[in-house]
Amino acid sequence: MENRTKEYISKVKVLLDQIVQEETPNILLGATMLADALEGDGRIFIWGSTHSSTALQDIYMRAGGLMVINTIFIPGLEDLHLQPFGITSKIERLSGIAEIALDYAPIRPGDVLIVVSVSGRNSVPIEMAKIAHERGIKVIAVTGLRYSTSVSSRHSSGKNMFFYADVVLDNKAEPGDAILTSEKIPTKFCPISGITSVAILQCLIAETVEELLARNITPPIFMAQNLDEGDKYNQTLLKKYQEKIFYLKPD
Fold it and tell me: How many CA atoms lie within 13 A of 94 on its CB side?
């Protein structure tokens, strides 16, 4: 019997090393965008559908994470419990949904939008990046470039999501995402993008913190609420940055 644990972890390590070697320049560009937004008048948003939404949740309202990360939610696209099977994938292919979401979100020109989609081929993530870019919003795309360039667009533009991004962060996902194989089954198994997308996003936050510190700005980082001093510390920073945060309860 093969040691699948060792094989999977080994492949994860290879891809994470590739991210360090190949994606660091673009991560630094993205971090500069986020730091500029935080220092100036810009705000920061993130969106991802279906399983890509699990990556965005790792940097949203998270202990140790930036307080100023806001999400855009689209009903039916982040609800992985939604039944029956396949409905979220069909919704993601519909044109017009992203425009409605952007119309109703408190996002404006000069803000930054991080869009996460592994294949980047479906209409909603493509239009999310495209329309945001057209509206003067800076777009950072987290996607699998090998995956995305191996499949055709499902959008009328004929282009995939990364085409409309100011900065592209490649999560190194292979076509189909999964990385393990067996002669006994016709499809690969155990996807990788959940790990690599989260890693890239956390690297983006880490470099943003470093950039803010270089500018003598105290990064608004959540302290864990389960630490005794966490609530008091967080409330001070939440109040300071309240104009850049849209998930707070109204006074």
Answer: 15
